[in-house]
């Protein structure tokens, strides 16, 4: 039997969802609700959860309040704190997937190896570790923070101690009494540094750039708080709305940096209250406008830095010689373990290495000298019948779950139109994607991300901002209300 004949006889899905994290779970629930059932989810791991399954480092939690960092259709009264920790978020995602009967739709332990567009049949051909699948459309719900990034450091191969990334935490390694080097002071490091500090003999924290770390307004909800949430849903709804309003105010400031200058001054005064040593205060004071890099929240990070066994090194790691780590200023320290708090590969999404577009080009090859572009963070040029969730230039200061839900409403509207109108191929127009991204880049120049005086992961190697949305969350959601077929080249089944 020829490969074409095999394809003809195989089951053809209306859509395949890649990934069972927050986006993949929501996609399945929304598709079922819309009466769209011929789909399957492919998940490389043995359980749902995405980034909340993978990141298990000590202190791991969310910096968006739980009321908003949850699905709009599945509020929970189980949160123990205003800001949930990783185990509770993972448990929540598992509970939701069971409640809405998503798990039977998932093929676990099945990793996507390659997705290729078949122009002759207007189908996606997906090779996985469990075989080949055919689908009319694909939703890539693999998320922007999936692949841990470890920088290339001279002499790293000579290190003989223990070494791991925060996203691949080695819980079997005992940190007690060890000399520990932490590389990076981003969102993960400010959470795990206070947890490992009491264990360490010596703790060396390498900081290339001082981040803004603001006090976290967290509190234990206790049994009474949980009971109120459970018995009075209106309280939780009000909490969700108030959090959303607060984040909208922050987003306004990010778009209008002049309004952030007073916040900058308040932040510096708060720092002076928390850090007494003059040298340390100088080293942890950011030299850029608040919001230019991701705003971090913690109450225990600065106290941990001021302990006798902790040493902040305000320079990056540049070299390793055996078990000696060397900072950019030449400072040398012998350590037993290196923990990387260096984030993820976000400017070149790993999914790009597995997807071949209609031109026969692997997306990662298109992105190697720049970062990806998409229409509304969802549709990629020359990549028909495929949709990204949490793609380029949709980032606003809000819940990733809320952003994913908004994008999925747009995507599912498109999927329903494809099915109901007999569309065989839907490809975003080149002029539409160009006009959209030209406007994005024009308006993003005045936001704090580009004008705040920092270099962040929002910018690729060419200084182009591939992550942020330059307008309001309200405008983003309005644009994502429905997929406009006029923005796409459309081929119909009858015309083939």
UniProtKB/TrEMBL annotation:
SUPFAM superfamilies: FAD/NAD(P)-binding domain. The keyword Methyltransferase does not apply. The keyword Zinc does not apply. The chain crosses the membrane at residues 12-31. Keywords: Membrane, Transmembrane, Transmembrane helix. PANTHER family: FAD_NAD(P)-BINDING DOMAIN-CONTAINING PROTEIN-RELATED, L-ORNITHINE N(5)-MONOOXYGENASE-RELATED. This is NAD(P)/FAD-dependent oxidoreductase. The lineage of its organism: Bacteria, Pseudomonadati, Pseudomonadota, Gammaproteobacteria, Moraxellales.
């Amino acid at each position: 039997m020829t490969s074409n004949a095999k394809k003809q006889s195989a089951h053809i899905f209306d859509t395949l969802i890649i990934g069972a994290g927050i986006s993949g779970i929501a996609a399945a629930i929304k598709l079922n609700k819309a009466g769209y059932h011929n789909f399957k989810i492919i998940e490389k791991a043995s359980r749902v959860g995405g980034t909340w399954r993978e990141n298990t480092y000590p202190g791991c939690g969310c910096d968006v309040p739980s009321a908003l960092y949850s699905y709009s259709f599945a509020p929970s009264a189980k949160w123990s704190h205003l800001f949930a920790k990783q185990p509770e978020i993972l448990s929540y995602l598992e509970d939701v997937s069971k409640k809405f009967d998503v798990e039977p739709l998932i093929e676990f332990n099945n990793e996507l190896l390659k997705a290729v567009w078949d122009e002759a049949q207007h189908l996606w051909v997906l090779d996985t570790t469990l075989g080949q699948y055919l689908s009319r459309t694909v939703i890539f719900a693999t998320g922007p923070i999936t692949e841990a990034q470890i920088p290339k450091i001279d002499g790293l191969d000579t290190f003989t101690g223990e070494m791991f990334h925060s996203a691949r935490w080695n819980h079997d390694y005992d940190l007690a009494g060890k000399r520990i080097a932490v590389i990076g002071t981003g969102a993960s490091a400010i959470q795990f540094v206070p947890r490992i500090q009491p264990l360490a003999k010596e703790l060396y924290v390498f900081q290339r750039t001082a981040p803004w770390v603001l006090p976290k307004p967290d509190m234990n909800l206790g049994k009474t708080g949980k009971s109120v949430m459970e018995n009075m849903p209106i309280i939780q709804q009000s909490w969700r709305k108030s959090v959303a309003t607060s984040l909208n105010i922050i987003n306004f400031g990010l778009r209008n940096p002049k309004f952030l200058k007073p916040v900058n001054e308040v932040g510096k005064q708060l720092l002076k209250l928390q850090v007494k040593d003059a040298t340390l205060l100088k080293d942890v004071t950011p030299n850029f406008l608040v919001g230019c890099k991701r705003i971090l929240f913690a109450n225990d990070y600065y106290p941990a830095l001021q302990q006798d066994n902790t040493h902040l090194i305000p320079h990056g790691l540049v070299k390793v010689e055996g078990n000696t780590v060397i900072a950019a200023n030449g400072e040398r320290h012998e350590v037993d373990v290196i923990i990387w708090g260096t984030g993820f590969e976000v400017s070149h999404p790993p999914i790009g290495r597995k997807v071949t577009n209609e031109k026969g080009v692997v997306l990662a090859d298109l992105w190697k000298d720049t970062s990806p572009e998409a229409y509304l963070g969802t549709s990629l040029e020359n990549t028909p019948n495929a949709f990204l969730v949490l793609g380029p230039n949709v980032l606003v200061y809000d819940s990733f779950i809320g952003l994913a839900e908004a994008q999925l409403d747009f995507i599912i509207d498109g999927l329903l139109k494809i099915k109901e109108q007999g569309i065989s191929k839907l490809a975003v127009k080149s002029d539409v994607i160009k006009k959209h991204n030209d406007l994005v880049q024009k308006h993003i120049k005045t936001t704090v991300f580009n004008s705040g005086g920092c270099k962040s992961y929002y910018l690729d190697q060419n200084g182009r901002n591939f992550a942020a949305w330059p307008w309001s969350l309200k405008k983003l959601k309005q644009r994502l209300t429905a997929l406009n077929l006029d923005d796409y080249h459309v081929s119909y089944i009858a015309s083939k």
